[in-house]
């Protein structure tokens, strides 16, 4: 179990206070979902939808990269 979970509604990391998903959580998710990147993208897309409702002031392009862009 990781401490790097999102703290809502700010979407910061509970383990390191960076934007979630932080670098540590990204590494954990890559390892957890390897090699099933489609499932990883679906998991993060669901979080993106939730975060977009809370973070209306954050540009959509930033949220897309933050949640999905790094998975490529």
Question: Could you give a short description of this structure?
Answer:
The protein is mainly alpha-helical and 72 residues long. 51% of the residues lie in helices and 6% in strands.
Structure overview:
With 72 residues, this protein is mostly helical. The protein is 51% helix and 6% strand. Strands 1-2 form a two-stranded antiparallel sheet. Strand 1 (6-7) and strand 2 form a beta hairpin. Helix 2 packs antiparallel against helix 3 (60-67). It is globular and about 35 Å long.
Q: Segments where pLDDT lies below 50 for 5+ residues?
A: none
Let me know the largest β-sheet.
2 strands, antiparallel
Fraction of helical residues = 40-55%
Oligomer: single chain
Spatial shape: globular
SSE diagram, text form:
Blueprint (H helix, E strand, L loop, with lengths): L5 E2 L4 E2 L9 H11 L3 H18 L5 H8 L5
Antiparallel strand pairs: 1-2
Helix pairs in contact: 2-3
């Amino acid at each position: 179990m990781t401490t790097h979970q999102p703290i809502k509604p700010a979407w910061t990391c509970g383990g390191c206070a960076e934007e979630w998903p932080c670098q540590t959580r990204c590494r954990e998710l890559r390892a957890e979902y390897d090699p099933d990147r489609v499932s990883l993208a679906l998991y993060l897309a669901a979080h993106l939808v939730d975060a977009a409702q809370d973070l209306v002031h954050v540009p959509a392009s930033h949220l897309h990269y933050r949640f999905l862009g790094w998975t490529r």
